[in-house]
Amino acid sequence: MAIFEGRFTDAQSLRIGVVVARFNDLVTSKLLSGCLDCLSRHGVDATDTSSQLDVAWVPGSFELPLVAQTMARSGSYDVLITLGAVIRGDTPHFDVVVAEASKGVASVARDTAVPVIFGVLTTDTMQQALERAGIKNNLGWSYGLEALEMGSLMKALG
Ligand code: INI
What we know:
Elements: E1 16-21, H1 25-41, E2 53-58, H2 64-73, E3 79-87, H3 94-112, E4 116-123, H4 126-132, H5 139-156
Parallel strand pairs: 1-2, 1-3, 3-4
The protein binds 5-nitro-6-ribityl-amino-2,4(1H,3H)-pyrimidinedione.
């Protein structure tokens, strides 16, 4: 019996792309900081001159799938992370943006076999989003960890 598991010790061998939405930048820049901190502390070169890690900014969460798809198809990345924040209270078309972002990101992963972490916060209020972006816990850190696990697992599966 083979058991496949992602490891967190493969970080130095992974090429990682992060796509982050500028909308609700107060939240998403915190998610990005938490994510980069996690990657860096696991051995990823997260410096400005890194050849292992790239960050692409998009206007909003709706645009995450297209840029993730472009990066996935480039063949330059083992794993991608998408970061965004959609807040129901301020967004009449909340459901549309969330549905397109989530379905789009899932499709990119399945179509390209490059794992794409869905790091889009969907909350009722800005307060809740901020709590998940660092006031209480920074989910960006968790998304970084999940990227290392999935990148490693997909490599193990060959
Ligand atoms: N994009 C977000 O990432 N979060 C939001 O809360 C949001 N609101 O509130 O509308 C949002 N809208 C922008 C959208 O993602 C696109 O960038 C825009 O529609 C252009 O395509």
